[in-house]
CRISPR-associated endoribonuclease Cas6
Amino acid sequence: MRVRIVFALKNRGSHVPFHHQFMLAQMIKGILMKGQNSEMINYTLYNFSGLKGQTKVSRKGLHFYSSRVTLVLSSPNKDFIDYFLKNLFNFEQVEIGTLFLKPEAVELEESIEFEDSIKFICISPLVLLSSSFNDSTAKRFIQPDTDSFSDMLYDSTIQRMQETGRFTEEELKSFYKFQIVPDKSYLARLTAAQKKFARIYPVFDQDVKYEVRGYTFPFTMYAAPKVQEFVFHSGLGQFTHKGFGMLDVANSNPSQRVLNYEFSYA
């Protein structure tokens, strides 16, 4: 399930870095720890977007000028989402960068129909390789239209699905059809305009900074519907619980498929 958390922005014009996933990851982790439930604190099967709102770009990053800012949080575990929301709404205010945000409301995104072929867009960068201290492997560039690109995403997806314990070995073996096909015209336009679709991003784990290469472009994913559903709710690739690999359906407006979401504050 995916929810949109709506915050009131108390200081318009304030800013965050262009890539602020690591700040959001730290905020989310802090709120999970505040609830003192070790199972939820160590839970990793979730995903989130960057902050969304009316922005302008400067050298400092993204300045927000809308009265409200939203964050999409996704997980197949409703109890986890409710736990996070309950603890979040115990705060009068949270700070991300220089933004002062007051939790205001929650909306539920209606689910989509999962098929064997879906065109996705990346609403946070897609990371192929994991990283370790003083290791530059994860910064290596891999062409999106190669089998290696798809194979790495397939391996990480099946491993994560297996770790959930929600799929039998027979099911996992049946998910062998998996292919990522990038939108070549989109990549060609970026290349012609000398713009990048792959950049180096920071990731923090236990106060250690890593650097990884993230990709942002539309692509069609060919996979079983259960695999499509898994990555839609849990993210695709590495470091999904750090805010990477969140997808949305191309040519779709998620604001048009939202419902009010109620949860227990107790």
